[in-house]
Write a structure and sequence with these properties.
alpha/beta, about 190 residues, seven-stranded mixed sheet, 7 strands
């Protein structure tokens, strides 16, 4: 079993925030692959499903970003899921809007959700699915940027979420490089 964690801030008032692209990605995957209904558990919302024969537990912590680990740790402990089988879907300032990178471990780059997961799991060695939201250009604008809603001009958001859902079987089968390639192909601008 894999644990796929979407990082975000709970509540309808935050639904379209850039910080919530991790939640949005899990919602798209769960819809596309027919996961069960979202239920409250582990200080979050969970949905269970299977992709390519691999059982997936999707988790959207409802603890706010800074307490994400308080949801991830009990879910992983109860289901006996090792950190190497945990995948965090999160917003990434240092990637252009709509770009995706996947990596195992590494630093938290100022992301409080990743920092708290690392604290709760006791290791940085879990997977990160970095979903680019772009940088506003000035450090003092970062807070407002990540907590701001996607705008109508952000036409890349829905195609990205569709591509992530479409390529999810490649993640489930442990092929992150193929996943990134597939997402890039599905989201490239027509010539």
């Amino acid at each position: 079993m894999l644990l796929w964690v979407g990082l975000g801030n709970p509540g309808a008032e935050h639904a379209r925030q850039r910080h919530n692209i991790g939640f949005m990605a899990l919602d798209a995957i769960a819809r596309r692959h027919g996961f069960g209904p979202w239920r409250k558990r582990y200080k979050g919302e969970i949905a269970e499903g299977s992709i390519g024969g691999v059982k997936i537990l999707a988790l959207k912590p409802q603890t706010y970003m800074n307490g994400s680990g308080d949801s991830v740790q009990p879910a992983s402990a109860f289901h006996k899921i090792a950190p190497a089988d945990i995948w965090a879907f999160h917003d990434e300032l240092d990637l252009a809007p709509g770009k995706v990178r996947v990596k195992m471990g590494g630093g938290v780059a100022g992301h409080n959700g990743l920092r708290d997961m690392q604290r709760a799991l006791g290791t940085p060695d879990y997977w990160r699915v970095r979903l680019g939201i772009g940088h506003p250009g000035m450090k003092e604008k970062v807070h407002g940027h990540v907590l701001g809603n996607f705008a109508k001009v952000d036409t890349w958001v829905e195609p990205l979420l569709d591509a992530v859902a479409d390529a999810a079987p490649l993640l489930a089968s442990g092929k992150p490089e193929d996943f990134m390639t597939r997402v890039a192909l599905l989201t490239q601008e027509p010539k």
